[in-house]
Amino acid sequence: MTVPSPGVPNWIDLATADLADATRFYTAVFGWTAEVSGDDFGGYTTFQLNGLPVAGAGPLFGEAQPTAWSTYFAADDADVVAARVEAAGGKVLVAPFDVVDQGRMAAFLDPAGAPFSVWEAGIMRGAEIFNVPGALTWNELNTRDAEGAKAFYGVVFDWDYQDTHVSGLPYVMCELNRQPVAGMQLMVGSGWPDDLPPHWLIYFAVGDCDVAAEHAQRLGGRLVHPPTSITAGRYALLEDPQGGRFAILAGNR
């Protein structure tokens, strides 16, 4: 695998209120193995699938932080991205910093308040397996301001956009060099609680959506949206036992 192009999702990780239980849950759901780092990384855990890094997890930084998955986008220069974020009306939550020799990261909010991060690869390149059961397969921005998001991420990552529909509902494909890299969905209608903030949602590939959703529930997860067939396949929305939200997708074959 080569390092993903700048502006393409290249890592995901979970900040969780109970790292031990999250490790139990996700390794059982997706067949991952867990590799716990040394004291230099505060117990950060790297999950592997077929011997390759697929995701990470670590403890919360403070009591006010919710359990949540984060989407990271590849960056050639995290400092340049930080400058673009501020110029486009976003906010730098965590200024770019070195993670020893692993790489360089930063965390941001877009103008609507959706958090996201970037990863500038060092010896750790990011995830090395995608689009197979148990691996990341899609990243989607859920926002109430699609036009504002288009303008912002266009400046930050040089994305272009294609307005389309998924199962009859408006959807935006985010593209880089004419290749889809992420999606964007407008949070309108009764299915979106007023108190649900804009966010990036991650999708894990599974072989059978219904079976995987049932398995996750038996392990203590909560079903937020039942398995549903859409244009891309069949998906469900779940929460882990600590409240971390994620989706699963069994793509059309």
Question: What does it look like?
Answer:
This protein has 253 residues and is an alpha+beta fold. It is 17% helix and 46% strand. The protein contains four helices and 16 strands. The protein has helices at residues 19-30, 78-87, 146-157, 209-218, and strands spanning 9-16, 33-36, 45-49, 52-59, 68-74, 91-99, 103-109, 115-121, 136-143, 160-166, 169-176, 179-186, 199-205, 222-230, 233-239, 245-251. The strands form two sheets. It has an eight-stranded mixed beta sheet, with helices on one face. An eight-stranded mixed beta sheet has the order 10-11-12-9-13-16-15-14, covered by helices on one side. A hairpin with a 2-residue loop joins strand 14 and strand 15. The longest helix is centred in the N-terminal third of the chain and has 12 residues, at 19-30. The model has no long low-confidence stretch (mean pLDDT 94).
Q: Outline of this structure?
A:
The chain is of the alpha+beta class and 253 residues long. It contains four helices and 16 strands.
How many DSSP H or I helices? 4
- Class per helix and strand makeup: alpha+beta
Helix content: 10-25%
Taking pLDDT < 50 over at least 5 consecutive residues as the criterion, the unreliable ranges are none
Strand order of the largest sheet: 2-3-4-1-5-8-7-6
The profile of the biggest β sheet is: 8 strands, mixed
**CA-based gyration radius:** 17 Å
Instruction: Assign an overall shape.
Output: globular
SSE run = EHEEEEHEEEEHEEEEHEEE
Strand content range: over 45%
Tally of DSSP β-strands: 16
Span from first to last CA? 24 Å
| Residue-averaged pLDDT | 94
